[in-house]
Amino acid sequence: MNGSFRVGSLFGIPFYVNTSWFIVLALVTLNYGGQLGATFPELGGTAATLLGLVSALLLFSSVLAHELGHSFVAMSQGIEVKSISLFLFGGLASFDRESKTPSQAFWVAIAGPLVSLGIFLGLRLILNSASTLSPVTAILSLLASINLVLALFNLIPGLPLDGGNVLKAIVWKITGDPYKGVVFAGRVGQVMGWLAIGLGLIPILLGGVPQLWTILIGWFLLQNAGRAAQSAKIERTLSNRTAADVVSPNSPIVRQDLTLREFANQHVIGNSREWKRFLVVDGDKKLVGAIAVDDTRAVATSDWVKTTVAELTKPLSLETIAANTSLLEALQTMERLAQSELPVADENGAIVGLFEKNTALEILREEREPDRKREPEPEPTLTKAE
Which residues does the annotation mark as catalytic? Predict the structure, then answer.
């Protein structure tokens, strides 16, 4: 998220705070500090403001606990939590992948509201046992109310809220299609966004002041619900294609029994693209390593006819992608390994080509801009490798 900076880690999860968070921190501190000062005059201005700051920090601790609820359930499913961020509208836990089943997705989504509801009930038990009103009980009462609102608000059935993810899981369970769940919940989220904006503007018709916070929440729902639906459409496209579908027929693969002269003539000289490295395979097309073009310069050209590619091949520690892997999984694997290209192998381990990240990105661009005119690509003349 733009404007965020890391402040540490929680249970091994990177923790970020967005600059917009400080706006709410200041507003809650001043507003509730003022309320405490008016209710308890004996506190004085400084003490009331400090307690207002404590209240604000406890408020965001509740939001953080809410996100940790999602995170712990996701982690129990083997999902990596990439980060937790606090920002203007609350918090966000980012995962490296989705749950594998609708029931798992349901429990990840509902965990946050359940944590908030649990905090509310726990605080109410404490407050019910308190005999007198004090600054401490006033702060606990505020936290109880905030956690109840946090739980109920997030259960609104529209993305990107938790209720939207619950709805997504339910539709996924009914239809068997996770993307239909995202699209449906995204559309509901957009309806909720327009509804919130409309409610925020109604006071203008009555000669009053628009409810800016309601309008901002509506805009937030509208924008993010639309992105979720678009992302689902793109993910479906990527899931319906495999790595083998987009491998170039002229992928950078050379046999280890070629001489350097054959290698240069057939794969390097006149190639429309300058490759720095070629994958090397044996007679069964199994990956044995890689050869760098620069390494051939260490061999006298007069010896190229009697020196084989195998002699300059170096071991290659590079994970391969199964040919039937979806483009979505292939991209996730690339991101995890921090690679821009990976070899693709069939069920027998034979290398069928090289899958490049740029190929998948081009598909994404076509999906976002279906009417975009594509420039004709030059015909490749030789095998490629990089």
Answer: 67
